[in-house]
Design a protein that fits this description.
3 helices; single chain; about 475 residues; mainly beta; 12-stranded parallel beta sheet; Pectate Lyase C-like
Length: about 475
């Protein structure tokens, strides 16, 4: 029954994350529209209008209409909100959306008249910004909220849940971790989803939440039914980055930047799909419990010691098609306790002279490690796989090892174990793992790896990833799977 319950929960979670009649809201962090040293300064330019006094209109850097900008809810000058006037009759400190008669652009665009007088591009960077307004309704882009917290404080949660669409091109820098006190706590029948977009909702754009080096994105250890899609989140300094509870998922997200010992924590049925983790300096990176799953992720543990991925509790945990990169002598790629762990088609690599293991587990029942590549635990005691005497019923099959002190799994001899078809390579199987290129080398492909497994991306540059094949008992990459962060 518990397995049936799990799969029902998984079905409901995925259904709520990708479908259903959720209420859409929009968040548009204010864009900088001038200068050349900011995020969007090279995308636009300001041109003096033929009408009015000191009025300038916005166009694409190459001239003509910019598809990136629609009528913004609010425009600010030097940190202060402007007021809306009328094109061709703007007074100092006003903006409007339109097409002046004498300009005859053939399309509507943003017009401003600064209090500072003159060309916005002649001001210091970020002098003019446009985007949402937390006093707006938030129900479309032209009445978008400025901040995610503003939306949570002012929107009304939909009966079937809410879907926040965050426009790419600017960053929502948080003053405090996101709070759902006013909005309401997400529920199984009414989940909360936040997803990035560029011009149209669900177009695979990338929204961004920043902890300003001092606050968590969300610190809500009892909050369930929360999803992040095509989001970049990080820069939380020494505090944790994300702490959520049950039925939460992360799809095509970039998660980075915390020195906290446990920066990312989720509870029952957490799902990480096609995500990129990087720039962590604590002792763990991701801690998951109870049916936690990683699919096609790239997890760069950097110089973290301890466990890069820590999974526990007496339930099934799964890692499939995932790259785990370590660079510390004391790092374990995966550390597992009290769990039915499944690890398949993964590349687990240590750039340092590792003394621990790619997979290190204890007190497990029914663990299976199949068709993985494990490389780099070449220090004293280093091994691709280590298990404790309390384990029972292991399957270790079809893995490829290289560059480990002991190129074999290390486990107690009295454990019921199926250990078959594991091989030791004569050279590294990865093209350039230090720089993140886990493509299977040409030599390896010629000998035993007929095709390339494509895994998660590095930031916005899609990288190839190497791993072994689920279908071949002797290992290999006969299956091609495509996945990438953010699209």
């Amino acid at each position: 029954m518990k397995y049936a319950s799990f799969f029902l929960t998984l079905f409901l979670l995925l259904s709520s994350a990708w479908g259903g009649a959720r209420t859409d809201f929009y968040v548009w962090p204010r864009w900088s529209l001038d200068g050349t040293g900011n995020t969007n300064g090279d995308l636009f330019k300001w041109t003096v209008s033929l009408d009015g006094t000191d009025e300038y209109y916005l166009e694409a850097a190459a001239g003509g209409q910019s598809a990136l900008v629609v009528d913004p809810p609010m425009v600010e000058e030097n940190g202060s909100d402007m007021t809306q006037g009328t094109v061709s009759a703007l007074t100092a400190g006003q903006f409007d959306w339109g097409d002046a008669v004498s300009d005859a652009l053939g399309y509507d665009t943003l017009y401003v008249r600064l209090t500072a007088t003159g060309d916005p591009d002649a001001q210091v960077d970020e002098w003019v910004q446009a985007g949402g307004d937390d006093a707006a309704a938030g129900t479309s882009e032209v009445v978008a909220f400025e901040t995610t917290q503003g939306g949570l404080d002012n929107a009304t949660d939909g009966t079937d849940g809410s879907h926040f669409n965050m426009k790419s091109g600017a960053v929502d820098v948080l003053a405090a971790g996101l709070s759902f006190v006013t909005f309401g706590v997400p529920a199984a029948a009414a989940p909360w989803v936040i997803e990035g977009y560029t011009t149209t909702a669900r177009d695979n754009g990338r929204g961004e939440l920043d902890g300003n080096a001092i606050v968590a994105i969300i610190n809500a250890p009892a909050q369930d039914n929360t999803s992040f899609v095509n989001m970049k989140m990080g820069n939380t300094g020494s505090v944790l980055l994300l702490w959520l509870d049950n039925d939460c998922n992360f799809s095509s997200c970039e998660i980075y930047g915390s020195s906290n010992a446990n920066p990312v924590v989720t509870g029952f049925a957490g799902i990480y799909d096609d995500c990129y983790f990087h720039t962590f300096t604590g002792t763990h990176l991701v801690r998951g419990e109870s049916y936690t799953s990683f699919f096609n992720c790239y997890i760069d543990g950097g110089t973290q010691s301890g466990e890069i991925v820590n999974v526990s509790s007496n339930t099934i945990n799964t890692l499939i098609g995932t790259i785990i990169k370590c660079n510390h002598v004391d790092a374990n790629g995966i550390f597992n306790t009290n769990s039915y762990l499944r690890v398949e088609n993964c590349s687990i690599y240590n750039e340092a002279v590792g003394t621990e293991a790619g997979i290190n587990s204890s007190n497990m029942v029914g663990a299976a490690y199949r068709n993985n590549i494990i490389e780099g635990w070449s220090g004293t005691g280093g091994a691709p796989i280590k298990t404790g005497a309390a384990n029972s019923n292991l399957v270790i099959r079809g893995n490829v090892y290289f560059g480990n002190t002991t190129n074999a799994a290390v486990h107690a001899t009295d454990i019921p174990t199926v250990e078959r078809n594991n091989t030791v390579a004569s050279a590294s199987l990865f093209t350039d793992p230090s720089s993140g290129d886990f493509t299977i080398t040409t030599e390896a492909q010629d000998v035993a790896y007929p095709q390339v497994f494509r895994g998660a991306a590095l930031s916005t540059t899609f990288q190839d990833a190497g791993a072994a094949d689920a279908g071949e008992s002797g290992g290999g990459a006969a299956v091609s799977v495509v996945g990438h962060v953010g699209g």
